[in-house]
Amino acid sequence: MNHHRSLLGGIEAGGTKFVCSIGHPPDEIHATERFPTTTPEETVRRAIRFFQSQPQLPERIGIATFGPADLNLNSDTYGFITSTPKPGWSHTDLAGCIQRELHVSIAFDTDVNGAAMGEYLWGAGCGLKNLLYLTVGTGFGGGALVNGRPIHGLVHPEMGHLLLPRAEGDTYEGHCPFHRTCLEGMATGPAIQDRWGVAAEELPEDHLGWIFEVHYLSHAVVNLMLTLSPERIIMGGGVMQQKHLFPAIQSKVLSLLNGYVQSPKILEEIDQYIVPPQLGNDAGVLGAMALTMIQ
Ligand code: ADP
Ligand code: ZN
């Protein structure tokens, strides 16, 4: 037993499911519960009940949430999910409800900032204080750590809506309701499915769709590298299950940079620079717990 370490809680608040855990992450997790995201009342109630039913309450709880969320500690709506299209969830005081019921301190951040913190503490970005975590799934999300802390900013970064040049030969009209052909509109799972009429997981490895995918993801990676100068980039999410994307993105990124950024980490070790996540199945809730450990 690790009596010297705080007992921590985590809530991965996802658009389709919630995952709650309690324990000493990453190895000693005492209990975990998953349940579908229904109404805010019912879902938040189940999360609260999970912690109340444990032998001991955690000292701190990290919440890693879908967005958009208000992360500004000085705002009246800090801890809220703000303007989500998810029915019923707009303007939900997620952190406040849980804090008022359980009386423990809460760390509240986006799911991708949680994932970045988890990978930084225990996974593929271990000890790298300037780290970028990207997920390519139903949406595209990005969480960036600068000096070991997630970037928040005015609202929070929305890397999924980067505007990128169109791939040669790609006539797809784009999927984003706001910008049509932004990164999310062109390169997420639903965009692939909509463009080709088959799910991304069914698209053969030699399909033109993957050339387009590598184009968009590599442009995004290059823009983010040039902006944030991360020490490593972790790429996860359903679409990145296609392992052939990694070498293709690595080499496209090198060719787009064209030797400009003179770091051996990029020029000589790109396969260690753009990598998959390491935390696996419980990454989301471990990320939530990791949020309680921001220095
Ligand atoms: P979410 O983004 O909803 O949290 P995922 O990261 O699993 O969940 O993303 C789901 C998307 O990823 C779907 O659009 C699906 O088509 C796509 N996807 C899931 N598995 C694969 C796979 N093995 N190869 C390619 N695409 C996949
Ligand atoms: Zn967009």
Descriptors:
295 residues, alpha/beta, five-stranded mixed beta sheet, 10 helices, 21% strand, globular, binds adenosine-5'-diphosphate, binds zinc ion
Task: Describe the overall structure.
The chain is of the alpha/beta class and 295 residues long. Helices cover 33% and strands 21% of the residues. It contains ten helices and twelve strands. The protein has helices at residues 40-52, 94-102, 111-122, 183-187, 189-196, 208-228, 245-257, 264-267, 270-273, 283-290; strands at 8-13, 17-24, 28-36, 60-65, 80-81, 92-93, 105-110, 131-136, 140-146, 149-150, 232-236, 274-275. It has a five-stranded mixed beta sheet, sandwiched between helices. Helix 3 packs across helix 10. The longest helix has 21 residues, at 208-228. The mean pLDDT is 96. It binds adenosine-5'-diphosphate and zinc ion. Zinc ion binds next to helix 4.
Order of helices and strands: EEEHEEEHEHEEEHHHEHHHEH
Please report the distance between the alpha carbons of the first and last residues. Answer: 24 Å
Mean pLDDT: 96
Small-molecule binders: adenosine-5'-diphosphate, zinc ion
Helix percent band: 25-40%
Q: Estimate what percentage of residues fall within beta strands.
A: 15-25%
Total strands: the figure is: 12
Please state the overall shape, judged from the principal axes of the Cα atoms.
globular
Low-confidence stretches: none
Backbone CA Rg:
19 Å
Number of helices: 10
Strand order of the largest sheet: 3-2-1-4-7
Structural class: alpha/beta
Major sheet: 5 strands, mixed
